[in-house]
Amino acid sequence: MSVRSFRATVSGGTGSVTIRKGDANEIFHPMDSELEGTVMALDAYGRQRLTVEQTLTHDLSVDLEGKVRSGEDCTSTGWIREDNTLVSNAQSWRDITTRSTIRTDTQLNLLDSDGSLTTARAVVFGADELGSVGDLASLLLFPMTPIELHAFFGDTQLIKGQSSNDDITWDSDWRWSVGNEMNTENHGLVTQVSIFHYEIGRCLGHAQIDILVKNGHPWPVKQDVDIVIDKTLEGPNCNFVGSSLNEVLPDGRITIVATITETSSNSGSQATQWGSSYAGSPGSGEDVPGGQSQWGYAMPDQSDQRDFDLEAAVDCLMANHSTTDAAVALETGGYVWQAAYSIDEWNLSWVRDDDPLVGLS
């Protein structure tokens, strides 16, 4: 039995996008006090960064519909699940200097109509926010969240008739064109912008986003999403796209329809100082593991910060990470040793009965 088609329709719900103002104690270098309001966050290498923290929440009612193919014949069985609840919370941190995303932490909770709860969490470092053809999750997440206009368009002024074809530096498969200005009852004067995914439209269906942009608003005041991805539409000129999606896209058809509308907005007390350099910013290559490091089951810890002793590290490991290989080894006869040296420097290693040594080198 295989999935032949899948359709998700967002029938209602609420959401929010918020930017948190950081406290003064998050400024970790005394020369960066003028950047108070930024948030300290750790990047993939554990280095401190000054960032803008954004939280995106959704509480949605989702209707699911699909068909599955039975056996070797061509018959299909349809199914419908209405009134499912999807709750998501996604936090992201973007470096104040480079505007690049250093970390994203997403929590999803799906409660289906039968009362069954499915949860998932993903922490990603430095992901492409626009998504790529080979990364289906990011590709679908981008249109399903309010588009941050400056992150997408940069400093481009959205003028009627303008398009991504006019920008020789544009290198995303998401293309766009600017339409007319219009007056709306709920949002006043807005500009119509059409966004579409070129590769999906060429080979696998369509991914269309129509947004209404209002001057002074960092996100669209309205965003309509219409996505159809169908591998059966793949033609002879779609080899790259087809192979990229082959491992991540199930056989059949995926359809997603949604409308996101702004209902209220509140501006903060100060503008974000994008592009500002800061004294505490890590240097190029600083604390990044060398390419020649040898390791087996765990990445070497080459950081030089030790604010706790070995005993505290083991206690933390057993209390908070009891299912890891290290904790399991300690619970089943393994042991930890500590060598005394004039300089307080250590790394955590462990042994198992069936392996001479595994751990951090």
Structure description:
The protein is mainly beta and 361 residues long. Among the domains are: 1-127 and 262-281, no CATH class; 310-359, no CATH class. Helix content is 12%, strand content 39%. It has six helices and 13 strands. It has helices at residues 136-141, 149-153, 198-203, 239-246, 310-320, 325-331; strands at 2-20, 39-42, 48-69, 76-95, 101-111, 117-124, 174-184, 188-197, 205-213, 222-230, 253-261, 349-352, 355-359. Strands 1, 2, 3, 4, 5, 6, 7, 8, 9, 10 and 11 form an eleven-stranded mixed beta sheet that branches. Strand 9 (205-213) and strand 10 form a beta hairpin. The chain is globular. The two termini are 47 Å apart. The relative contact order is 0.13. Residues 357-361 have low confidence and may be disordered.
Key phrases:
mainly beta; two-stranded antiparallel ribbon; disordered C terminus; 39% strand; globular; 361 residues
Strand proportion, as a percent range, falls in 35-45%
| End-to-end CA span | 47 Å
Average pLDDT, rounded to a whole number, is 81
Which geometry do the CA atoms define? globular
What is the overall number of helices?
Answer: 6
Classification by helices and strands: mainly beta
What's the Cα radius of gyration? 25 Å
| Helical coverage, percent range | 10-25%
Q: Strand tally, please?
A: 13
Q: Largest beta sheet, briefly?
A: 11 strands, mixed
Order of helices and strands: EEEEEEHHEEHEEHEHHEE
What low-confidence regions span 5 or more consecutive residues with pLDDT below 50? 357-361
